[in-house]
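Title: [Solved] Pterin-binding domain-containing protein 3D structure

Original question kept below for reference.
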Amino acid sequence: MAKLKDVLRPLGENEFWVIGESLNVIGKEIGKAFKERDPKPIQREALFQKEKGVDLIDINLGPAKKDGHELMPWVVETVQEVVDDIPLVLDTSNIDAIAAALPKCKMPTMINSIMVRPARYEKMVPLAAEHGSDFCALMWGPDGLPRDENERAALLVELMTVANEAGIENDQMWVDGIVTPVNIQQPQAIALMNFMDMLPEIMPGAMSTCGVSNISSGVPDNLRHVLNLTFTVMLNLHGMISFIADCRDDVTMDLARGKRPDIVNAIKQTMEGNQPDMASLSQELQHYVKSTNVILGKTLFSDSWLDV
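Solution (posted by the thread starter after getting help):
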């Protein structure tokens, strides 16, 4: 049975895979389409994501407590009627919904996600093993969010051990160390990058992903874009190979295919302590440099960090 990584495009240097995020129950049009079983908006969105070049399509039903076991397989089949050559990510906390949908998937699939809590992984790991599915390993333990990279590592070892014993290999697990808002928990961004540096030693061959937009949760809307993009590049430089993102953002899609080395280089130099001369940079690149310093904690966070 093919693994998910085997059907994805090869990655070049500083490239990453994009998991399209917009088939989401919280979207007004898509949420209504899910509820009313209207295939047209769902298929229109799937075709749009394919046109934009996403590598995977996330189907997010949220809790879906009432009818998820019927809704998820219906959405999978609805999407696959028009797009059957892009892998799907089944995103819901309803285990029965995932179990019902996995047999309907035509390509290798990812389950999003399995938390490091026995009540969850004791049911979900065997399900992934039965279907040969990849899964997102969410570093959320019995006590909630880990405090630092070491607690993340301990959680990962626990889940990895269970998965390996079930016959699931490391390269079928997509580790999500959890992104938190920089305006609330600034040190957590550093902890996540440190954890990414540790990942190859803890879990050789592991995949990785995250919902990067959490970094800017609670930040004014006009500032979220630059913060999200900056952290995307920073995490990628620390080894993150996929991101759940909005494919409508052209800069994200360009970065995913290595088309913006100017952004990558400006952020990389700043991370390495060799910040480029600001006078030599465009305003766009200056914003990425300033945002890098905020995430690194070199600049105190405020809503006016781009103006400093």
